[in-house]
Write a structure and sequence with these properties.
mainly alpha, 0% strand, 88 residues
């Protein structure tokens, strides 16, 4: 005879997110990373953070080109606000 699972709460979204995140990390191979791999990743992130925090090189004061809105073609009933036709 099997036991019945009884929950303490109505929902367990937090646990679901943790389980899905752990599974995605395992699929990506993160559970096999060594300390050296993690250190390399940390170093890369620190290098990128330094580049982002530095001010950008000065640019010339040329005005930006104005963009005009683009009108996309409307094809079929799925791109309009009309309801689908009744089939009965």
């Amino acid at each position: 005879m099997f036991g019945r699972f009884i929950t303490d709460r109505d929902r367990n979204d937090g646990l679901d997110c943790r389980v899905y995140s752990r599974a995605a990390a395992a699929v990506a191979g993160m559970d096999r990373y060594t300390d050296a791999t993690w250190q390399t990743i940390e170093d890369r992130i620190a290098e990128m953070a330094k580049r982002v925090s530095q001010p950008a090189a000065p640019t010339t004061n040329q005005p930006k080109p104005l963009m005009r809105p683009v009108q996309l073609p409307v094809r079929g009933r799925f791109f309009t606000n009309d309801p689908p036709p009744r089939r009965w």
